[in-house]
Amino acid sequence: MFHINWLAAVAAGVLGFFPGAIWYSKLMFLPAWQADTGLSKPPEKPSEAVRIVTGLVLSIFSAIIFAVLMGRGPDLLDSVHAALAVAIAFITPAFAIQYLFEGKPLRLTLINGGYHTVQFLIFGIVLGLWH
Contact 15/9 with Cβ under 8 angstroms? Predict the structure, then answer.
């Protein structure tokens, strides 16, 4: 099957998910994010637990696919560069295009794209260090 370090990939996905708790907190970007999305409180459905578990599973999935792209035992610098390239060249522009047509502010692109840049940077660091 795929020749990756599965434990490192899963750990990267878990570690990459949790900075969102800080990123989207009142200490950082929650007020701006709420203003730009129009959400003053989380939606009632799905439940908070379902959102957290689903988000964690998707983060792990993303880390596994990134690990597959990087191959077994990637060099730290190569892994970090690839993570930044994915986040800055693919994820953030995808948000920008979507938000452009939804009439959402550029700031929302920077908030959400910034989080995923941090997330993928963590993926790259974990996969680059854990051989």
Answer: no
Provide the CB-side half-sphere exposure for 101 (13 A, CA).
Answer: 5
Q: Which residue has the tokens 């077994």?
A: 72
Query: What is d(CA 44, CA 35) in angstroms, rounded to the nearest whole number?
Result: 18
- In degrees, rounded to 5, the angle at the alpha carbon of residue 22 between the alpha carbons of residues 51 and 34 is 65
Query: Looking at beta carbons, which pairs linking 34-41 to residues 24 or more positions away fall under 8 Å?
Result: 36/104, 36/105, 36/107, 36/108, 36/111, 37/104, 37/108
pTM above 0.90, yes or no: yes
CA distance 80 to 83: 5
pLDDT tens string 1-57? 689 999 999 999 999 999 999 999 999 999 999 999 999 887 788 898 999 999 999
- CA atoms of 16 and 56, how far apart (whole Å): 9
Cα 113 to Cα 95: distance, rounded to the nearest angstrom: 7
